[in-house]
Design the sequence.
């Protein structure tokens, strides 16, 4: 991940989560620089932003918005601390594993192996889909998705264990980027047809569920359609 991409990936994700376009301030760019200099991995920074924004949305009243990336700083650093803790002792130093920890270690290895297999499969599927894309922003975006997944794969491999909650959030962030790129290749009439199908299929839920819940279900319906169209499995460890 080069210097420029680290900045732009974080800026784009924050602006997308905020829900309304906002050019981040020079102070925010300085904060991103501080994160990078501190060694905060991109996925950890994005995860921290997501958790902070989710918390804000849960408490939000009226039309207030988060105006600065500084709002997310504490959560990003907390996620980084957890990340560092999860990687403690991952290097081999010849010390025997205590008998009481050996079973847990084997479970971690099994979980890591299954997770690495899932990520590799998804990367292959996305690569196959990218080969059918014309050159341009969509193809470039898919290249970014693959690079993000490779970073996640390396983190899981290095840690030798899986933090299910953190990993699932990382994959959800990447999946959102993937869908954004794939939508650009789908004819508008196809999207309209799927929206009509979703409205028909979910009609029974419209009046029974809160609007936010209904919209989430509708979004998942469209998400599944896009994944199927490009023969890409779901980016979720709960599909293991």
Sequence:
């Amino acid at each position: 991940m080069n210097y420029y991409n680290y900045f732009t990936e974080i800026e784009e994700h924050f602006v997308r989560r905020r829900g309304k376009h906002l050019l981040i301030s020079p102070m925010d760019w300085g904060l991103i620089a501080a994160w990078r200099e501190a060694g905060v991995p991109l996925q950890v920074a994005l995860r921290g932003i997501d958790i902070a924004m989710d918390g804000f949305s849960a408490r939000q009243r009226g039309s207030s918005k988060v105006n600065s990336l500084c709002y997310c700083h504490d959560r990003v650093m907390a996620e980084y601390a957890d990340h560092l803790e999860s990687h403690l002792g991952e290097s081999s130093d010849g010390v025997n594993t205590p008998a009481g920890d050996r079973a847990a270690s084997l479970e971690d290895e099994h979980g890591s192996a299954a997770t690495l297999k899932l990520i590799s499969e998804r990367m292959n599927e996305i690569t196959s889909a990218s080969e059918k894309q014309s050159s341009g922003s969509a193809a470039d975006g898919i290249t970014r998705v693959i690079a993000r997944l490779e970073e996640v794969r390396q983190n899981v491999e290095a840690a030798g264990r899986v933090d299910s909650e953190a990993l699932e959030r990382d994959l959800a962030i990447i999946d959102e980027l993937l869908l954004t790129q794939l939508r650009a290749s789908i004819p508008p009439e196809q999207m309209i047809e799927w929206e009509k199908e979703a409205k028909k299929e979910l009609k029974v839920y419209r009046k029974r569920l809160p609007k936010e819940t209904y919209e989430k279900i509708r979004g998942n319906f469209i998400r599944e359609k896009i994944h199927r169209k490009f023969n890409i499995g779901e980016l979720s460890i709960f599909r293991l």
